[in-house]
UniProtKB/TrEMBL annotation:
<dbReference type="GO" id="GO:0004674">
    <property type="term" value="F:protein serine/threonine kinase activity"/>
</dbReference>
<keyword id="KW-0418">Kinase</keyword>
<dbReference type="GO" id="GO:0035556">
    <property type="term" value="P:intracellular signal transduction"/>
</dbReference>
<keyword id="KW-0067">ATP-binding</keyword>
<keyword id="KW-0808">Transferase</keyword>
<feature type="binding site">
    <location>
        <position position="33"/>
    </location>
    <ligand>
        <name>ATP</name>
    </ligand>
</feature>
<dbReference type="GO" id="GO:0004707">
    <property type="term" value="F:MAP kinase activity"/>
</dbReference>
<dbReference type="GO" id="GO:0005634">
    <property type="term" value="C:nucleus"/>
</dbReference>
<protein>
    <recommendedName>
        <fullName>Protein kinase domain-containing protein</fullName>
    </recommendedName>
</protein>
<dbReference type="Pfam" id="PF00069">
    <property type="entry name" value="Pkinase"/>
</dbReference>
<feature type="domain" description="Protein kinase">
    <location>
        <begin position="4"/>
        <end position="288"/>
    </location>
</feature>
<keyword id="KW-0547">Nucleotide-binding</keyword>
<keyword id="KW-0723">Serine/threonine-protein kinase</keyword>
<dbReference type="GO" id="GO:0005737">
    <property type="term" value="C:cytoplasm"/>
</dbReference>
<comment type="similarity">
    <text>Belongs to the protein kinase superfamily. CMGC Ser/Thr protein kinase family. MAP kinase subfamily.</text>
</comment>
<dbReference type="InterPro" id="IPR050117">
    <property type="entry name" value="MAPK"/>
</dbReference>
<dbReference type="InterPro" id="IPR011009">
    <property type="entry name" value="Kinase-like_dom_sf"/>
</dbReference>
Length: 318
Protein backbone atom coordinates (compact mmCIF):
# COMPACT_ATOMS: atom_id res chain seq x y z
CA UNK A 1 0.00 0.00 0.00
CA UNK A 2 3.00 2.30 0.42
CA UNK A 3 3.04 2.61 -3.38
CA UNK A 4 -0.08 4.72 -3.15
CA UNK A 5 -0.50 8.36 -2.23
CA UNK A 6 -3.97 8.94 -0.73
CA UNK A 7 -5.47 12.07 -2.26
CA UNK A 8 -8.99 12.55 -0.85
CA UNK A 9 -11.88 10.56 0.60
CA UNK A 10 -14.58 9.69 -1.94
CA UNK A 11 -16.98 8.02 0.44
CA UNK A 12 -17.04 7.31 4.13
CA UNK A 13 -19.16 5.01 6.24
CA UNK A 14 -19.10 2.75 9.24
CA UNK A 15 -17.22 0.19 7.09
CA UNK A 16 -14.21 2.49 6.54
CA UNK A 17 -13.30 4.89 3.76
CA UNK A 18 -13.02 4.90 -0.03
CA UNK A 19 -10.06 7.03 -1.14
CA UNK A 20 -9.00 8.54 -4.39
CA UNK A 21 -5.36 7.53 -4.63
CA UNK A 22 -2.40 7.88 -6.94
CA UNK A 23 0.05 5.12 -7.72
CA UNK A 24 3.42 6.74 -7.08
CA UNK A 25 5.26 4.80 -9.79
CA UNK A 26 2.74 4.51 -12.63
CA UNK A 27 0.79 7.69 -11.94
CA UNK A 28 -2.49 5.80 -12.20
CA UNK A 29 -5.44 7.19 -10.28
CA UNK A 30 -7.43 4.50 -8.45
CA UNK A 31 -10.08 4.20 -5.75
CA UNK A 32 -9.04 2.31 -2.62
CA UNK A 33 -11.67 0.96 -0.26
CA UNK A 34 -10.24 0.40 3.19
CA UNK A 35 -12.33 -1.76 5.47
CA UNK A 36 -11.80 -1.43 9.20
CA UNK A 37 -10.90 -4.66 10.99
CA UNK A 38 -14.16 -4.48 13.01
CA UNK A 39 -15.93 -4.73 9.65
CA UNK A 40 -13.77 -7.20 7.79
CA UNK A 41 -12.97 -9.19 10.98
CA UNK A 42 -10.33 -11.14 9.11
CA UNK A 43 -8.33 -13.74 10.93
CA UNK A 44 -6.99 -15.69 7.98
CA UNK A 45 -6.07 -15.41 4.33
CA UNK A 46 -8.91 -17.84 3.47
CA UNK A 47 -11.41 -15.51 5.11
CA UNK A 48 -9.99 -12.62 3.13
CA UNK A 49 -10.42 -14.47 -0.17
CA UNK A 50 -13.97 -15.42 0.84
CA UNK A 51 -15.03 -11.83 1.54
CA UNK A 52 -18.12 -11.20 -0.61
CA UNK A 53 -16.55 -8.30 -2.46
CA UNK A 54 -13.26 -10.10 -3.15
CA UNK A 55 -14.73 -13.48 -4.06
CA UNK A 56 -17.52 -12.13 -6.26
CA UNK A 57 -15.38 -9.61 -8.12
CA UNK A 58 -12.61 -12.08 -8.75
CA UNK A 59 -15.22 -14.33 -10.41
CA UNK A 60 -16.93 -11.53 -12.32
CA UNK A 61 -13.82 -10.00 -13.84
CA UNK A 62 -13.66 -8.05 -17.05
CA UNK A 63 -17.30 -7.16 -17.53
CA UNK A 64 -17.65 -3.59 -18.83
CA UNK A 65 -20.56 -2.90 -16.48
CA UNK A 66 -19.09 -4.25 -13.25
CA UNK A 67 -16.45 -2.29 -11.39
CA UNK A 68 -12.96 -3.65 -11.88
CA UNK A 69 -11.14 -4.81 -8.75
CA UNK A 70 -7.44 -4.50 -9.56
CA UNK A 71 -5.79 -5.64 -6.38
CA UNK A 72 -6.69 -6.58 -2.84
CA UNK A 73 -4.47 -6.44 0.23
CA UNK A 74 -4.91 -7.90 3.67
CA UNK A 75 -3.15 -6.09 6.51
CA UNK A 76 -1.53 -7.87 9.47
CA UNK A 77 -4.18 -6.25 11.71
CA UNK A 78 -7.10 -7.87 9.82
CA UNK A 79 -7.92 -4.83 7.70
CA UNK A 80 -8.67 -5.21 4.00
CA UNK A 81 -7.81 -2.74 1.24
CA UNK A 82 -9.39 -3.13 -2.16
CA UNK A 83 -7.97 -1.25 -5.14
CA UNK A 84 -10.54 -0.42 -7.82
CA UNK A 85 -10.42 1.36 -11.13
CA UNK A 86 -11.28 4.99 -10.48
CA UNK A 87 -14.77 6.11 -11.46
CA UNK A 88 -15.94 9.73 -11.61
CA UNK A 89 -18.80 9.37 -9.18
CA UNK A 90 -21.95 7.47 -8.36
CA UNK A 91 -25.33 7.66 -10.03
CA UNK A 92 -26.90 9.55 -7.12
CA UNK A 93 -24.29 12.29 -7.45
CA UNK A 94 -24.93 12.47 -11.20
CA UNK A 95 -28.67 12.73 -10.63
CA UNK A 96 -28.11 15.48 -8.06
CA UNK A 97 -25.79 17.40 -10.41
CA UNK A 98 -28.21 17.04 -13.32
CA UNK A 99 -30.28 20.20 -13.17
CA UNK A 100 -32.94 19.11 -15.66
CA UNK A 101 -34.63 15.77 -16.14
CA UNK A 102 -32.81 13.06 -18.08
CA UNK A 103 -34.44 12.30 -21.39
CA UNK A 104 -35.69 8.80 -22.01
CA UNK A 105 -32.79 7.87 -24.30
CA UNK A 106 -30.35 8.73 -21.50
CA UNK A 107 -32.34 6.71 -18.97
CA UNK A 108 -32.55 3.79 -21.39
CA UNK A 109 -28.78 3.86 -21.79
CA UNK A 110 -28.10 3.79 -18.04
CA UNK A 111 -30.71 1.09 -17.42
CA UNK A 112 -29.39 -1.01 -20.31
CA UNK A 113 -25.89 -0.96 -18.82
CA UNK A 114 -27.11 -1.82 -15.31
CA UNK A 115 -29.05 -4.77 -16.72
CA UNK A 116 -26.05 -6.03 -18.71
CA UNK A 117 -23.91 -5.99 -15.56
CA UNK A 118 -26.67 -7.61 -13.54
CA UNK A 119 -27.28 -10.29 -16.15
CA UNK A 120 -23.59 -11.18 -15.95
CA UNK A 121 -23.73 -11.32 -12.15
CA UNK A 122 -26.86 -13.46 -12.02
CA UNK A 123 -25.69 -15.82 -14.78
CA UNK A 124 -22.47 -16.34 -12.85
CA UNK A 125 -24.42 -17.17 -9.74
CA UNK A 126 -24.16 -13.92 -7.78
CA UNK A 127 -26.93 -11.76 -6.39
CA UNK A 128 -25.96 -8.13 -5.58
CA UNK A 129 -28.52 -7.47 -2.82
CA UNK A 130 -27.76 -3.75 -2.41
CA UNK A 131 -28.49 -2.07 -5.71
CA UNK A 132 -29.13 1.66 -5.33
CA UNK A 133 -27.90 4.80 -7.09
CA UNK A 134 -24.94 5.26 -4.65
CA UNK A 135 -23.67 1.81 -5.61
CA UNK A 136 -23.77 2.43 -9.35
CA UNK A 137 -20.56 4.04 -10.51
CA UNK A 138 -20.27 6.30 -13.51
CA UNK A 139 -17.38 7.34 -15.75
CA UNK A 140 -17.52 8.97 -19.17
CA UNK A 141 -20.90 7.60 -20.12
CA UNK A 142 -20.19 4.14 -18.73
CA UNK A 143 -22.19 2.80 -15.78
CA UNK A 144 -20.78 0.01 -13.63
CA UNK A 145 -22.23 -1.93 -10.75
CA UNK A 146 -20.13 -1.31 -7.63
CA UNK A 147 -20.16 -2.16 -3.92
CA UNK A 148 -20.50 -5.92 -3.98
CA UNK A 149 -20.05 -6.00 -0.21
CA UNK A 150 -23.53 -7.54 0.25
CA UNK A 151 -23.29 -9.88 -2.74
CA UNK A 152 -24.07 -13.52 -2.16
CA UNK A 153 -23.51 -16.67 -4.18
CA UNK A 154 -26.75 -18.20 -5.42
CA UNK A 155 -26.80 -21.88 -4.44
CA UNK A 156 -29.74 -23.84 -5.81
CA UNK A 157 -31.92 -25.11 -3.00
CA UNK A 158 -30.23 -22.91 -0.40
CA UNK A 159 -32.35 -19.81 0.11
CA UNK A 160 -31.12 -16.43 1.26
CA UNK A 161 -32.55 -15.21 4.49
CA UNK A 162 -30.59 -12.24 5.78
CA UNK A 163 -32.28 -8.86 5.83
CA UNK A 164 -30.59 -6.88 3.06
CA UNK A 165 -30.78 -3.92 0.68
CA UNK A 166 -31.22 -0.28 1.56
CA UNK A 167 -34.87 0.24 2.55
CA UNK A 168 -36.09 2.37 -0.38
CA UNK A 169 -34.87 -0.26 -2.83
CA UNK A 170 -35.84 -3.28 -0.74
CA UNK A 171 -38.20 -5.79 -2.31
CA UNK A 172 -41.47 -6.56 -0.46
CA UNK A 173 -40.55 -10.20 0.23
CA UNK A 174 -37.43 -8.98 2.09
CA UNK A 175 -39.46 -6.33 3.94
CA UNK A 176 -41.79 -9.12 5.04
CA UNK A 177 -38.89 -11.22 6.31
CA UNK A 178 -38.94 -13.95 3.65
CA UNK A 179 -36.45 -16.78 4.14
CA UNK A 180 -36.71 -17.72 0.48
CA UNK A 181 -35.82 -14.71 -1.58
CA UNK A 182 -33.59 -14.80 -4.66
CA UNK A 183 -31.95 -12.65 -7.34
CA UNK A 184 -35.34 -11.10 -8.15
CA UNK A 185 -34.68 -8.68 -5.25
CA UNK A 186 -32.14 -7.04 -7.58
CA UNK A 187 -34.79 -6.70 -10.31
CA UNK A 188 -37.11 -4.90 -7.87
CA UNK A 189 -34.27 -2.47 -7.07
CA UNK A 190 -33.71 -1.81 -10.81
CA UNK A 191 -37.40 -0.87 -11.12
CA UNK A 192 -37.13 1.63 -8.26
CA UNK A 193 -33.89 3.09 -9.65
CA UNK A 194 -35.42 3.42 -13.11
CA UNK A 195 -38.35 5.38 -11.69
CA UNK A 196 -35.95 7.58 -9.72
CA UNK A 197 -34.05 8.44 -12.89
CA UNK A 198 -37.26 9.79 -14.42
CA UNK A 199 -38.31 11.79 -11.35
CA UNK A 200 -34.88 12.68 -9.94
CA UNK A 201 -36.25 11.75 -6.54
CA UNK A 202 -36.83 8.43 -4.81
CA UNK A 203 -40.08 6.66 -5.70
CA UNK A 204 -40.61 4.86 -2.39
CA UNK A 205 -38.95 6.83 0.43
CA UNK A 206 -40.26 4.95 3.49
CA UNK A 207 -38.86 5.88 6.90
CA UNK A 208 -39.21 2.37 8.30
CA UNK A 209 -40.19 -1.07 7.00
CA UNK A 210 -43.90 -0.60 7.67
CA UNK A 211 -44.00 2.79 6.01
CA UNK A 212 -42.06 1.31 3.10
CA UNK A 213 -44.78 -1.30 2.54
CA UNK A 214 -47.41 1.42 2.93
CA UNK A 215 -45.72 3.44 0.15
CA UNK A 216 -45.53 0.39 -2.11
CA UNK A 217 -49.23 -0.36 -1.58
CA UNK A 218 -50.22 3.24 -2.26
CA UNK A 219 -48.28 3.33 -5.53
CA UNK A 220 -48.89 -0.19 -6.87
CA UNK A 221 -52.10 -1.11 -5.12
CA UNK A 222 -52.17 -3.71 -2.36
CA UNK A 223 -51.33 -7.31 -3.28
CA UNK A 224 -54.14 -9.84 -3.37
CA UNK A 225 -54.32 -13.58 -2.88
CA UNK A 226 -54.39 -13.80 -6.69
CA UNK A 227 -51.54 -11.39 -7.49
CA UNK A 228 -49.17 -12.70 -4.81
CA UNK A 229 -50.37 -15.70 -2.77
CA UNK A 230 -47.01 -16.11 -0.94
CA UNK A 231 -47.27 -12.46 0.10
CA UNK A 232 -50.38 -13.21 2.14
CA UNK A 233 -48.58 -16.07 3.86
CA UNK A 234 -45.52 -13.92 4.57
CA UNK A 235 -47.72 -11.12 5.91
CA UNK A 236 -49.53 -13.63 8.14
CA UNK A 237 -46.21 -14.94 9.49
CA UNK A 238 -45.04 -11.38 10.15
CA UNK A 239 -48.43 -10.54 11.76
CA UNK A 240 -48.75 -7.74 9.25
CA UNK A 241 -51.88 -6.57 7.47
CA UNK A 242 -51.51 -4.84 4.13
CA UNK A 243 -53.31 -1.49 4.02
CA UNK A 244 -56.03 -1.66 1.37
CA UNK A 245 -55.22 0.57 -1.60
CA UNK A 246 -56.19 0.28 -5.23
CA UNK A 247 -52.99 2.21 -6.09
CA UNK A 248 -52.62 5.45 -7.99
CA UNK A 249 -50.55 3.67 -10.63
CA UNK A 250 -47.03 4.19 -11.84
CA UNK A 251 -47.93 6.59 -14.66
CA UNK A 252 -49.38 8.93 -12.02
CA UNK A 253 -46.11 8.85 -10.06
CA UNK A 254 -43.81 8.92 -13.11
CA UNK A 255 -45.68 11.24 -15.49
CA UNK A 256 -42.72 11.82 -17.82
CA UNK A 257 -42.20 8.11 -18.62
CA UNK A 258 -43.38 6.62 -21.92
CA UNK A 259 -45.85 3.76 -22.05
CA UNK A 260 -43.10 1.18 -22.65
CA UNK A 261 -41.04 2.55 -19.74
CA UNK A 262 -44.10 2.29 -17.48
CA UNK A 263 -44.68 -1.29 -18.67
CA UNK A 264 -41.10 -2.24 -17.88
CA UNK A 265 -41.15 -0.59 -14.43
CA UNK A 266 -44.52 -2.23 -13.73
CA UNK A 267 -43.13 -5.69 -14.47
CA UNK A 268 -39.95 -5.03 -12.45
CA UNK A 269 -42.13 -3.88 -9.55
CA UNK A 270 -44.32 -6.97 -9.53
CA UNK A 271 -45.27 -7.89 -5.97
CA UNK A 272 -44.65 -11.52 -6.83
CA UNK A 273 -40.91 -12.04 -7.45
CA UNK A 274 -41.69 -14.88 -9.86
CA UNK A 275 -43.50 -12.38 -12.11
CA UNK A 276 -40.53 -9.99 -12.27
CA UNK A 277 -38.42 -10.45 -15.41
CA UNK A 278 -34.85 -11.69 -15.18
CA UNK A 279 -32.17 -9.24 -16.29
CA UNK A 280 -31.92 -11.08 -19.64
CA UNK A 281 -35.71 -10.88 -20.13
CA UNK A 282 -35.78 -7.19 -19.17
CA UNK A 283 -33.12 -6.47 -21.81
CA UNK A 284 -35.53 -7.85 -24.43
CA UNK A 285 -38.35 -5.54 -23.31
CA UNK A 286 -39.77 -3.20 -26.00
CA UNK A 287 -38.37 -0.29 -23.94
CA UNK A 288 -34.96 -1.30 -25.35
CA UNK A 289 -36.01 -2.81 -28.65
CA UNK A 290 -35.80 -0.52 -31.64
CA UNK A 291 -33.22 1.65 -29.99
CA UNK A 292 -30.51 0.84 -32.53
CA UNK A 293 -27.99 3.11 -30.99
CA UNK A 294 -27.85 3.31 -27.24
CA UNK A 295 -26.75 6.92 -26.77
CA UNK A 296 -24.40 8.20 -24.12
CA UNK A 297 -26.26 9.16 -20.98
CA UNK A 298 -23.71 11.11 -19.14
CA UNK A 299 -21.63 13.84 -20.72
CA UNK A 300 -17.93 13.13 -21.06
CA UNK A 301 -16.03 14.54 -18.13
CA UNK A 302 -12.57 16.02 -18.06
CA UNK A 303 -10.19 13.26 -19.20
CA UNK A 304 -8.10 11.65 -16.48
CA UNK A 305 -4.50 12.55 -17.16
CA UNK A 306 -2.94 9.81 -15.07
CA UNK A 307 -4.84 6.87 -16.46
CA UNK A 308 -2.32 4.17 -17.28
CA UNK A 309 -2.56 0.43 -16.93
CA UNK A 310 -1.42 -0.65 -13.50
CA UNK A 311 1.10 -3.49 -13.50
CA UNK A 312 0.73 -6.15 -10.86
CA UNK A 313 2.75 -4.70 -8.02
CA UNK A 314 2.34 -6.36 -4.64
CA UNK A 315 -0.79 -7.81 -3.11
CA UNK A 316 -2.80 -10.31 -5.03
CA UNK A 317 -4.21 -9.62 -8.41
CA UNK A 318 -7.81 -10.68 -8.40
P1 LIG B 1 -19.99 1.23 1.06
O1 LIG B 1 -19.81 -0.19 1.44
O2 LIG B 1 -19.67 2.17 2.11
O3 LIG B 1 -21.35 1.56 0.56
P2 LIG B 1 -19.04 1.69 -1.67
O4 LIG B 1 -18.24 0.68 -2.39
O5 LIG B 1 -20.47 1.82 -2.06
O6 LIG B 1 -18.91 1.45 -0.11
O7 LIG B 1 -18.35 3.09 -1.83
C1 LIG B 1 -18.85 4.26 -1.18
C2 LIG B 1 -18.80 5.43 -2.16
O8 LIG B 1 -17.43 5.65 -2.57
C3 LIG B 1 -19.58 5.19 -3.45
O9 LIG B 1 -20.94 5.56 -3.31
C4 LIG B 1 -18.85 6.09 -4.43
O10 LIG B 1 -19.30 7.43 -4.30
C5 LIG B 1 -17.40 6.02 -3.94
N1 LIG B 1 -16.68 4.99 -4.72
C6 LIG B 1 -16.66 3.66 -4.47
N2 LIG B 1 -15.93 3.01 -5.39
C7 LIG B 1 -15.46 3.95 -6.24
C8 LIG B 1 -14.64 3.92 -7.41
N3 LIG B 1 -14.16 2.78 -7.90
N4 LIG B 1 -14.37 5.10 -8.04
C9 LIG B 1 -14.85 6.26 -7.55
N5 LIG B 1 -15.64 6.36 -6.46
C10 LIG B 1 -15.94 5.22 -5.81
MG1 LIG C 1 -22.26 1.48 -1.06
Amino acid sequence: MENYCFLKPLGEGSFGVVWKALHKVTGEIVAIKQLKNEVSRLTSWEEFLQMAEVESLSQLKNHPNIVNLKQAFMGFDGTASLVFEFMEGNLLQFMQLHKKRFNEAEIRNVCHQILLGLDHMHKNGWCHRDLKPENLLVKQGVVKIGDLGSAKKIQPGIPFKDYVTTRWYRAPEVLLGSHFYDSKVDMWAVGVILAEMFNLRPLLPGQNAEQQLFWICSVLGSPTMKSWPEGQILAGQAEYQFPQFSGSGLSFFIPSASESAIQLITSLLSWDPAKRPTAAEALKHPFFVGSHRIPRAIPRAIPERHNHILPNIGGILV
